[in-house]
Amino acid sequence: MHPVLEDYLARWRLTPDGTPLTTHTSILLPVRQEGMPVMLKIATEAEERRGAESMIWWGGYGAARVFAHDGDALLMERATGEGSLVEMAGHERDDEATRIICAVASRLHAPRDRPHPPSLVPLTRWFAELEPAAERHGGLLKVAAATARELLSEPRDIVVLHGDIHHGNILDFGPRGWLAIDPKHLVGERTFDFVNILRNPDSEIALRPGRFSRQVTVVADAGGLDRTRLLKWTLAFTGLSAAWILGDGDRPDLDLAVAELALAELTRLSE
């Protein structure tokens, strides 16, 4: 077992309750504390460390509760429910899964009686790689970059954003319902947090004929969003995601396909 896990097992009096899992951003270990199922998470990247601050700030409303935090380590509520939004979306319950995600996002965005964490990353910084990529690659990325400039110049409904809301980051916590994990610790326009629903849970589902337009309607209705604004943020973000993927030397086929769908919808609405 990783030494840092052993340190926190002793410090927080935890008992291992599963096998450690290492991702590209953290080390995870299911544990128990006085019999209660919890998750020990050790961040290995700065982005993941910042996310812990959002989890603490939300205070268990819309997100998993945090029981302890120390540097890179986070002890939080563990999802023990049997539900899966990924499975729901793949088994003719796509609309239901989308509405659940939108409800969780709305809880995260609800006003709090305390100031925002000072370390939040603004969307203007989050989108920094889009403009250079648009200059290099042109095409749809240039359209996405222009759309992002428009949106970022006049933001609306500023909230603490999750930044990565999708079917795999909203889990079933049993009696506590569906809750979010793994935020990116961003701040910006509320609509931005809904765009990932439209490119998830996978390319097969996201690109089913007619699915995009239908889910735009479901998301806009469930989230109380302006449809055109949602489409513009979708075009902007899929351009950014494509820029990241191109920077890694891979092919952003899904993001470019979703960007095309968003652009087509925007064109239709403007006619």
Topology:
Blueprint: H1 3-11, E1 15-16, E2 21-22, E3 26-33, E4 36-43, H2 46-58, E5 66-70, E6 73-77, H3 85-90, H4 94-109, E7 121-122, H5 123-126, H6 130-137, H7 140-153, E8 158-161, E9 170-172, E10 178-180, E11 186-189, H8 203-206, H9 211-223, H10 227-247, H11 253-270
Parallel strand pairs: 7-11
Antiparallel strand pairs: 1-3, 2-3, 3-4, 4-6, 5-6, 8-11, 9-10
Brief digest:
With 271 residues, the chain is α+β, with helices and mostly antiparallel strands. The chain has 11 helices and 11 strands.
Walk me through what this model shows.
The protein folds into 2 domains: 3-77, 2-Layer Sandwich (Phosphorylase Kinase, domain 1); 85-270, Aminoglycoside phosphotransferase (APH), C-terminal lobe (Aminoglycoside 3'-phosphotransferase, Chain: A, domain 2). The chain has 271 residues and is an alpha+beta fold. The chain is globular, with a radius of gyration of 19 Å. The strands form 3 sheets. Strands 1, 2, 3, 4, 5 and 6 form a 6-stranded antiparallel β-sheet that branches. It is built from 11 helices and 11 strands. Strand 3 (26-33) and strand 4 (36-43) form a beta hairpin.
